[in-house]
Each structure stands twice: as structure tokens, then as C-alpha cells.
Amino acid sequence: MSRSVLVTGGNRGIGLAIARAFADAGDKVAITYRSGEAPSGFLAVKCDITDPEQVEQAYKEIEAEHGPVEVLIANAGVTKDTLLMRMSEEDFTSVIDTNLTGTFRVVKRANRGMLRAKKGRVVLISSVVGLLGSAGQANYAASKAALVGFARSLARELGSRNITFNVVAPGFVDTDMTKALTDEQRENIVSQVPLGRYAQPEEIAATVRFLASDDASYITGAVIPVDGGLGMGH
């Protein structure tokens, strides 16, 4: 049965791969994007998740076209990497506001319809960095680690309503962002990954779609690493 699916930050990279995976399975897929071009084939809604009014308006558009959101993938995120002593207040708070508080906004709004329906699937996209840590990414790591506590608290709070909350923690993924690294940087990263390669965005998407499927109906509060073994033990 076709479901109403929302992927935030679904216009490129991991988010776009996730959106395509659900669309290929026959779901009605909406994406939000903040800048750049909207990909074709989806209901694309421009939305900055740091603005509560834009989040509310985006949901109204999606609900009018596809009905209440039944599957939410909170993927939108930003980085502002720098060492702690150079990190400004704005560097820190802006990353937290998008990656953590923005996720709170979209999850809370989606749960309105999920509570009425007494069912729903929420998957938060974290990062291996949130579990492992990374020099120069204290703001990003803090925001991504916080998603674990957020998801597990909601898994306990709303499990009785048949709403599941899970976290996917990707490792290094072959996207435009990582392609911008130098060959030396890429080689250094790969040398730390037991499987010896970057992930493909489709590999992250497959895990996300599994968590939103009937096969994962008894999984909630889980953190699933898709990182080639980079963060194992965390």
C-alpha cells in the first residue's frame, strides 16, 4: 500500500537516495530542501527546518497532496567544522539548531498525524561521528549524538501508539561532499574502514527503507551503523 513519506533534505546525496528508494517501492514521497534545485519525481517543498513557520507550511502542503505523513526520515543537516578554540557561538548553535532542534520540529509535527492513526515510522539520520567523535567536529558530533537520546526517549514515550523511532548512523559515504576531498584525505579515511571503501548512498537508503517496512515492526530505539565497521564497539 502506498504510504505518505517525507524525507527532509531530500534533494541530494543520502537524502535523495532515500527518497528514490521509497518512490521505487511505490510510496508517495515528499522532500524538503533549503537551497539548490529540486529533483523531479517527488513533491518538493522548499523549507528551512530552522523556521517553525516554514515547517508548519511544508506539512500543510504535503498533507494536502499526500495525506498525513506516515513515514518520516529526518535527514536534513549541516556542518560548520572547525577546532574548538576557533569555533564561534554561531558555528555551534546554528549546527545544533538545524541538526537537533530542526529534527525536533519535524518529528513533533509529524507525530500529530501518527498519533491519530495510531501508527508511524520515524528514522533519524545520525552519523558515525556522533558515536566515534571527530576532531574539528564537536558541534556536528554533539548534534548527531543527541539524536540517539532523542529517538530512544520517544521510542519509550510513543511505543504504545505503534510509532517506532530508530537511528541510522552512516559512515563515510560517496557523495558530492566527500568527492571534494583530496586523494590523500580520501585514502586516509578509507584506511580506517575495515571494509576498505566508502558506502554508496543506496546502501544507507536500503537500511532506512528496511526500518520503515513491516519486517522491522518490532524494532524501535535501535541505532543501526552503516559504516563499513568504522565505529564498531560504540
From TrEMBL:
| Top-level taxon of the source organism | Bacteria
**Its pathway?**
Lipid metabolism; fatty acid biosynthesis
Cite the binding residues for NADP(+). Answer: G9, G10, N11, R12, N75, Y140, A141, A142, S143, K144
Task: Give the matching SUPFAM superfamilies.
Answer: NAD(P)-binding Rossmann-fold domains (SSF51735)
Molecular function terms from GO: 3-oxoacyl-[acyl-carrier-protein] reductase (NADPH) activity; NAD binding
UniProt KW Magnesium keyword: no
What's the protein here called?
Answer: 3-oxoacyl-[acyl-carrier-protein] reductase
